[in-house]
Amino acid sequence: MKTYLPKETEIDRKWWVVDAEGQILGRLAVRIADILRGKNKPTYTPHLDCGDFVVVVNAAKVTLTGRKEERKIYQDYSGYMGGLKERPAAEIRAKDPCRLIRSAVRGMLPKGRLGRAQFRKLKVYADGAHRHEAQKPAPLEL
Asked: Domain holding 119: CATH number?
């Protein structure tokens, strides 16, 4: 028997829309990362980008459990000495609520060229409106 490997032209990409309102951040990020990688398909291949597109709406209303709102720290480093900036999740949510979901999903994707290509298929919006209606995304039930 031969192992089936899908060709780039044979990969069928769908669009999914996810409502993040009331969802727990980590559990939501796992489901999104699996869809971006294509692990929900029978033709999943680890070294190919065979995943779907995901549109996340209401990212500002995602839930952090426990005391993560004050204690979870996001780090930015400018590259200069003393250029490390540490901010709690509450401050990140106030400034850019989409970053919470983007950084959680990015950490769950493979590192390198393949992971960057998969991450580009994620579209995150802070409110309920998005501009991908032409692709007719199907709602994803979590």
From this structure: 3.90.1180.10
